[in-house]
Design goal:
Structural class: alpha+beta
Order of helices and strands: HHEHHEHHEHEH
Oligomer: single chain
Distance between the termini: 21 Å
Low-confidence stretches: none
Radius of gyration: 18 Å
Largest sheet: 4 strands, antiparallel
Strand order of the largest sheet: 1-2-4-3
CATH superfamily: NADH Oxidase
Number of helices: 8
Number of strands: 4
CATH topology: NADH Oxidase
CATH architecture: 3-Layer(aba) Sandwich
């Protein structure tokens, strides 16, 4: 096994990190979004399919555009964030397999069945969305992941004419709210088995 991360890293990534609901109003340089992507893209996906697509809405107009499709509560708590990220999956991800899985370019045919393609895209883009959260926390940002949006309307607005479909949204920036007390979690015995 590799050496365990120190307590400070574990605190930042998991133990003290919290979903945020209010944000310092700020603009961050594009290099931050590049840094986050360059970290998250290294997380594993099935056969390196990498189906996630990300839209970093950072301008006021882009944030207002995505907020139109969000619940009123989510929109109100997200507009001041440095970015609202649309995490989506490309259902045509298999077309990139010759690049992403070069030792077996024919691997794209593994995903010919529409149901397999849909499930693979959703599962792995969701993983990549989680990597986004960890990468953002690793570089010192707070996160506010959420659903609570009109997926069909958002997809028509941002992804018309493509095979890309939204998965979830995540506000990123520096939180300024006082988080609620941490909600309970299931114990190991309630959630896990060792067999």
């Amino acid at each position: 096994m590799s050496e365990q991360l120190d307590d400070t890293a574990l605190e930042r990534l998991f133990l003290s990190a919290r979903s945020r609901n209010a944000w310092r109003r700020e603009s961050l340089p594009d290099s931050v979004w590049h840094q986050i992507y360059d970290l998250l893209k290294m997380g594993p996906t099935s056969a390196n399919v990498s189906p996630a697509r990300f839209i970093f809405c950072t301008s006021d107009s882009a944030k207002a555009r995505v907020a139109r499709h969000m619940s009123a509560t989510n929109a109100a708590k997200s507009l001041d964030a440095a970015a609202i990220v649309i995490i989506a999956q490309d259902l045509e991800f298999a077309e990139k397999m010759p690049i992403l899985f070069p030792h077996n370019p024919g691997a794209r045919h593994w995903f010919s069945d529409p149901q397999v393609k849909k499930e693979t895209a959703f599962r792995n883009a969701t993983l990549q969305g989680a990597y986004l959260i960890l990468a953002a926390r690793a570089v010192g940002l707070d996160c506010g992941p959420m659903s609570g949006f009109d997926q069909e309307a958002l997809d028509a607005d941002f992804f018309a004419g493509t095979a890309i479909r939204s998965n979830f949204l995540c506000a990123l920036g520096h939180g300024i709210d006082t988080p609620f007390d941490r909600l309970p979690r299931l114990t190991f015995d309630e959630a896990c088995q060792i067999v």
